[in-house]
Every structure is written in structure tokens, then in C-alpha cells.
User: Fold these one by one.
Assistant:
Number 1:
Amino acid sequence: AQSVTQLGSHVSVSEGALVLLRCNYSSSVPPYLFWYVQYPNQGLQLLLKYTSAATLVKGINGFEAEFKKSETSFHLTKPSAHMSDAAEYFCAVSEGGTSGTYKYIFGTGTRLKVLA
Amino acid sequence: DTGVSQDPRHKITKRGQNVTFRCDPISEHNRLYWYRQTLGQGPEFLTYFQNEAQLEKSRLLSDRFSAERPKGSFSTLEIQRTEQGDSAMYLCASSLPGRWQFFGPGTRLTVL
């Protein structure tokens, strides 16, 4: 069965510092991997996705993530944090291929706090 | 592209009452998903439609829950005899086959 583990339910960084949010996955088939951001009382917005193409994926708002099969990881990074990055971030895994439900399995989330 | 919309955004009800939520997906998306998100947790899959067919239901979807997508467009999620444990954010998402999901703003349910 697929699963996602996000290490660190809360992460605090100073404005301008590196952001690193960790995600490890478990999947018996080649996975599709996603990072979503959620602002308070809002739905989920897609930041970036890995769908078996380039292992380094660039997303919106300066975020990027690297798929490392050997480490079963898909960590999210941003070189310089901005106050507007404060939000909750979710990593998700989905089965790949052309058939299947494509339902997402989400991690428990990491709340990012940016300190002035 | 107006995105995925959900109605209502907030619902407060008393225990034992029935509630119904609506989701309007992106128009050309034939796949529609419902998820439930409780406080401090990630969203959990509830059910999935391809066009009007409900193809998968999670064990989280008890007999009190029913979802429909009658014409393959909008979908409704009904909860009968609500319980306090049903309090959560209910998220709807839609997608094209094999593509990533676009999420709506969610319906926050509070059961008193």
C-alpha cells in the first residue's frame, strides 16, 4: 500500500533562509508525487508534481523538489523564504500509469512558519 | 476555467440532522474525488467518480454517507444522521484521466 511520511509537523525559518520540507513515500509501483499548499480555511493549491519525467521538478513561487528513488524521498525546497510562504504543506502520492483510481494518499502536513 | 467550486463553504448543523454538499468540477474533467480533512491531518480519500459511475469508496464512507454524480457533471455528498465525529473539511477535486487533481475551497462542517 502507498503511504507518505512528512517529517516535522512544524517548521520555522527566518525570512530569507532556506526552506526544506521533508517527504518520504512508500509505493509498490512507480509513483506520481505532489506537493500542495493550503492557506487557512482554503482548499489545496498545487505547488509542483513529479510524474516520471525530470527528477528535479520546479514549481510555483520558487519552490522545487527532487525525486530520489534510492531514498524514496521527494523533499520540497525554496532558497529564500518569504513571509507569504507561511502555510501548511502537504505531500501526496498517487499510483502512476494510465489506469487506476489515481486517488491521492496525503501526509499529515507540515506547517511552515516564517519569522521576520 | 472557473476552477472547482463547492457549496456551501460552511455548514453548522445539529447532531442527527442530514446535510448535503455540492461540488461543481472543472467542466471538461470527467474524474471527481471527495476527500475529508480533519483538524491537523492531511486529506483522506472518500470516494471517486469517473463520469457518473462511482468506482471506488473508502472504508471511511460509512452507510450514513452517500455520494452521487447523476449526469457526470456536479456531485453531491450527503451525510445522514450527522455525528460530532463528522465535523471536518470536505474537499472535492477533479481531474482529467491520468492528470493531477484540482481542489475546490472545501466545505467546513461543524456538528454541534
Note: Chain B has a mean pLDDT of 93.
Number 2:
Amino acid sequence: DVKVTQSSRYLVKRTGEKVFLECVQDMDHENMFWYRQDPGLGLRLIYFSYDVKMKEKGDIPEGYSVSREKKERFSLILESASTNQTSMYLCASTTQGNYGYTFGSGTRLTVV
Amino acid sequence: QQQVKQSPQSLIVQKGGISIINCAYENTAFDYFPWYQQFPGKGPALLIAIRPDVSEKKEGRFTISFNKSAKQFSLHIMDSQPGDSATYFCAASNQGGSEKLVFGKGTKLTVNP
């Protein structure tokens, strides 16, 4: 069974902390994505990556960065967490030319 | 231009009824329209998808209707069941561009027994 695994289901962090959200896929997918999900706002794209060491900004990249050193792993970094980054974060992956995303189960981040 | 507008925000249907969720888009370059289903505590999962060369696609109780001239598409769930209770997202993409999807804001469906 193919999988996208997000390392934490729940995280609580303090304002100003540097936060790492990890995502690993075992399907050898080229494309990986980070979305945040907020009630009434749907899924909004933060960053995506088409290949190792490659990244592109999505619709709401401010306050975030990403790292993709290996094909299977895509990390989302909150350089200095703020309370408005409290949200559900979803990682997804897909192979080239395929628009059927496989999502992880999400990480619910609370910044206090 | 990049938006996908989804309605209603929430929907309550009786068991056995028909659930209908609507989406509209502006970008005429969009050419792939999937629907995702999300249960509480889970990530969204691809449910069904359509390309604009057909007006309807059916998979079991789930049907996508597509109206290219109106730039609208909808999901119909026939004989709705309590197990269909979930949040549904429509999305769109320009396959000539990237594998990036633009999502609607979601519809929370509740099917009462």
C-alpha cells in the first residue's frame, strides 16, 4: 500500500520557534507538495517540488521554506513560528504527469 | 483566474437522497477536474475526475457532470449513505502546465440515517 507519512500528527510549538514538518513518500514520486488546510479556506498551496533540490513557491509561501535533499523526503520549515500559522498541514505527492495526489494524514500544528 | 468556487459550504441530506455539490472556474486553460473526499483525521483521497472532452463521468454512485460553456462542474452522489459523510473538495488543473491543483474551499456533507 503506497504511503505518504507525516512524522507528527499533533505538534504544539511556541511563538518564535523554528519548526520542522517532515514528509516521506515511498512511491518514488517526483512531485511533492505542502498545503495548509483551514476551515472555510480549503487547501492552500505553500510550496511544491518537482525534483530533488528543486522548489517553487505556491500561493502562500510567506513565513515558510522547504527542503528536498532526497527524492522521498520533503520538509516544511517555519523559520519563526507565529500564532497565525496554527493550522492543519498536509503533504502530498504524485508522479510526473499524474494529477491524482496521494495525501498524508496531516499534522495539526498549534503555535502558542 | 486561478480560483475554483465551490458551493454549498455545508450540506445535510437524508439517507437515500441525492447530494449535489457545485464548482465553478474562470481559467479556461483548466483541463482536469478531480474531486477529493476527506474523512475526519485523514488526508483527502482522490474520488473521481473528469476531463473536458466528456460531459459526464460515473463511478458507482458518484457522477461528475461537466458544463464547459458555463465553466461549471458538479458532483452528484446518488443514494447517499451515512458513510458518505465527509468533506468534499473540487479541484482544477492545467495539464499543459504543472501538476499543481487549485482546490475549492470544500463542502462538509452530512448524511443522516
Note: The CA atoms of residues 9 and 107 of chain A lie 4 Å apart.
